Structures are given as C-alpha cells and as structure tokens.
Amino acid sequence: MSIHTVATAPIEGQKPGTSGLRKKTPVFMGPHYLENFVQSIFNGTGGADGKTYVLGGDGRYFNDRAAQVILRMAAANGAKKVIVGQNAILSTPAASHLIRKRGTDGGIIMSASHNPGGPNEDFGVKFNAANGGPAPEGMTEKIFAETKTLTAYKMLDAQDVDLSTPGTTSLGAMEIEVVDPVADYQDLMAEIFDFDAIRALFAGGFRMRFDAMHAVTGPYARAILEGTLGAPAGSVINAAPSPDFGGGHPDPNPIWAKPLMEEMYGDNAPDFGAASDGDGDRNMIVGKGAYVTPSDSLAVLAANATLVPAYAGGLRGVARSMPTSGAVDRVADSLGIACYETPTGWKFFGNLLDAGRATLCGEESAGTGSDHVREKDGLWAVLFWLNVLAKRGQSVADIMTDHWARFGRNYYSRHDYEAVDSAAANGLMDAVRGQLATLPGSSVAGLTVTGADEFAYDDPVDGSRSEGQGLRMMFEGGGRVVLRLSGTGTEGATLRVYLERLETDSAQMDKDPQDALADVIAAADAIAGITSRTGRDAPDVIT
Ligand code: G6P
Ligand code: ZN
C-alpha cells in the first residue's frame, strides 16, 4: 500500500456553514471535492499525524463511499486510529459521545442533517473537536483558509475496508475499530434516565409513536424504546435507515412529519408522539392533540429536570439561541439560575457546557440537549419527556396547561421563505438593517417598537465576539420579531422570520399561535416588506 500525494487546486465555496459543509451530493462527488475538504480539515487542525478520530454518518447516499475515502486519507496523513460506526453509521449525538468517551482528537461526521438525501439531494461533512462538539468558529475559519490555498492531498492506495462487522482491523499503519453504533449511546441513556419508571409506564399500557423518518435514529429507537423499555413492537415507525430517507425530508416538524401529526391529532391517537431528523440530533414532541414547540419543550424540561436522575441535583444554568423564545428564561428566573442567549448554532453552547455554566441548552430549530454530550440529542429529548411523563403521571396537554398557568405562554412561530433569490434576501436584510436606528419609538401595524438591533454575542468563556447574528425588533408588551438568513441551505437564500409574543392572561392560553401572533406578523411584514421583496404571499414552511 503506497501513499500518494495528489496535486489539486483550491475549490470555491468550501466555507462551512452553521453546521459543517453542505452541498448537493453531485458537487461532493465531483473531482477532488471531498478530498480537498478532508485534507483541509486535517491541515486546519494541526495535521492528523498520530491522532485518533471517530468516523460515522447518517447513512445517506454516498455515506459509504465517502467513509472509505476519509479512511484512506486519514491513514495517508498518519492518523493512529479511527473508530468507525458499523457500516459507517453513527448518529451525531452518538458520535459526540464516542469522541468524549474514548478521548479522541475529534471526529468526522458525514451528514447534511435534516436536508433530504440521495443522488441529487444533499450531502455534508462536519468536523467535531475533542470535546465532542461542532468545531468552534475559529477552527472552521482555519479549515476554510486551508481550502483556499490547498495544493495537494494525501491518499493511501488501498482496497475498501470491511465495515460490516464490529472488530479491529488495519489500513496501512492505521488501526480501525468498527463499533456497534448503538451500544455506548444506549449505556449513556441508561445512566441519565429513570429507565425503571419508563418501563413501568409502558407496562401500564402507555402508547407512543416514534417516527424515525427513515433516518439514523431507527436502530437506536428500536433498541432502546422497544428493546429495553418495553414499548410495544411497532411503536417505532420508518425505522430502517435508507440512503434517500424514503424519498422524504427528514426534518421533524409539523410539515415534514405530517403523517405523525395527523395520527396524534386523529381518533385513537397514542399518548405520545416524537420524531427525529436525518442524523438524530433534532426532535419533535407532540402529545395527544398537543404539539409542543421546541422553545416550550426546552422550558418544560428545565422546569422538570429534577425528576431525571442525572439532573436531580438541579441545573447549573440554561442556554438558548437568540431566536428561541423566552419561555426558558422565565423558568430560569424562577429557579434562580443563569440563562445565556447565544447565536444560532449548537457550537456556541460548547464553551458554556465545557465551563459548567449551563446544563441544558436548546434551540427553536428542534434542538435540545445537555452536558451529557456536546451536540443536541433527539432521542435524549424523547427519553427526557418519557421520564417526566412517567414521574408526573399526566398527559402532555396537561403538563403544558400547568406550565403556561405557572410561567405564562410565549406564543411562538417561525415562518420560512425558502430558495429566495439571494440578492432579494440580502436586500431585505440590508433594508431592515438601515431602519434599526430609527425604529425604536415608532408605531408599526399598531405596535410600538421598544428596541431594535443586530444581535452580537460576546462569549463569556473565551471572550470571542460573533457579530451579524440576526436582526431583532422588540415591541411593547413583550412581542418580538427576529429576521435571519439560514446558514444551512444549499439553494438560494432561506429567510427565517421568528415571531413571539408573551401572554400572561390565564384566559388566553389556548389560541392558535398564528392568531395570537397576528399583530406581530403584520408588523414584521410592514417593517421588512417580505411579500414585496420576496415575491411570496405566504411562507413555505410554518413551524
Ligand atoms: C443546524 C445546527 C443548529 C442550528 C440550525 C440552524 O441544525 O446544528 O444548531 O440551530 O442548524 O439552521 P439555520 O438553517 O437556521 O441556519
Ligand atoms: Zn441534524
């Protein structure tokens, strides 16, 4: 087996977004594309020589081929060892856990998360650091800088490695350990949650539906929910991961998980419904006729955390991304703990978790997690809810009613305008940016603007500053609009409009969020001219 140095040239556009580099699969499969990026990861993180990595992905189209290329490159670059999930499969939280448990130098995860997969859909690669979390901004900048100057990459001339059976093998001088992707993760969940209480819940006839959306969590959910906790067979649906996610869009929200929503709002609905995304880090929670927004879910988990063995001693603090609703802030207030507001992207929670300042974190984009790993964790959130339901003996709807009665309700919705012309989207953001100074004090669509700014974050742990993280407009009475362009799309621009209003009148807790937010929605359009600038008269996705 010989090592080749292959001449290459920089490829445009290899800048990692909110969560790694995501492109259309044919782009990733193009000449040198994957190789250039992987070599840039190694070069941008001090080289692979003597290092140990974790490798796995969500099983999407090209996952298996990309894994073989990455292994050959790791060997050629002198890596000591790579721990690979069987068949190159690992959910993102399971990969994060393995990096931490084995004390590796980091890991490479092949996934485009909730984006569709297939020959003409999306593929992605992200690097996670030694703490198990997404590469922080400074690291992704170094990787990106490498992509712009790269002249060669290293490749081992070798056959494919058999990744179908757990065990140890080698590739050149590098050791490869193929591991069961579920086992370590399942052990961790058993340490965190009250499995006996959840087992008793199912033994008592509790029914749930977990939609794995043909993605990576199928095997994890089957093993844990049905295998260990005794949920009836068939509780987990769409459980076989498929390279194109069954032709679907593996994003757990009411739009893309529509069949689950219909079941949960229909006759004979189970007690509890949940779904996870392509790589297993997102979650959706829905009770019988009761959808729980991700922002509310974070607040409920924080308020009930001491029912879970791992958090029985209380939370050190909580954190949420800026566009996430303020529901958890109100819980943190009542618990007397800190609540941090970070930019969008899980990587911003890493320092807070490492420093022990936050225990629970969450985002409106269906992400919830804790200091057990350094990624958000879909199945963990589902088990957290099951633990709470088992201990409280109430339905999801009753838990929400109690929660709102105690803390008030942050009505919340996100409107997405997808594949908008990039120039039009940037023009809209620039136009709003231009109004920030003059908006406060003015009245828009009947609402008085109390403040407006562009969010910037000063990391309290390492002092780094991140600017340009979303435009915010606050209204009298607790309303808020946030505008942001997505950092994960692969086509044009996606405009996200985050809408929120706090309600404390106990007689007003059961409104349709779109009605409760009508004023705020009108104000957003009046300020940003969304309809006229995007040419769309309605959002593509409402969550
Ligand atoms: C990924 C990240 C999340 C982030 C989300 C935002 O899922 O892991 O932490 O919240 O992207 O995506 P957006 O498309 O809004 O940039
Ligand atoms: Zn994901």
Automatic annotation (TrEMBL):
Protein species of origin: Mesobacterium hydrothermale
Cofactor section: Mg(2+)
This enzyme's EC code(s): 5.4.2.2
InterPro entries: A-D-PHexomutase_a/b/a-I (IPR005844), A-D-PHexomutase_a/b/a-I/II/III (IPR016055), A-D-PHexomutase_a/b/a-II (IPR005845), A-D-PHexomutase_a/b/a-III (IPR005846), A-D-PHexomutase_C_sf (IPR036900), A-D-PHexomutase_CS (IPR016066), Alpha-D-phosphohexomutase_SF (IPR005841), PGM (IPR045244)
Family in the record: Belongs to the phosphohexose mutase family.
Catalytically driven reaction(s): alpha-D-glucose 1-phosphate = alpha-D-glucose 6-phosphate
PANTHER family recorded: PHOSPHOGLUCOMUTASE, PHOSPHOHEXOMUTASE FAMILY MEMBER
Protein's recorded name: phosphoglucomutase (alpha-D-glucose-1,6-bisphosphate-dependent)
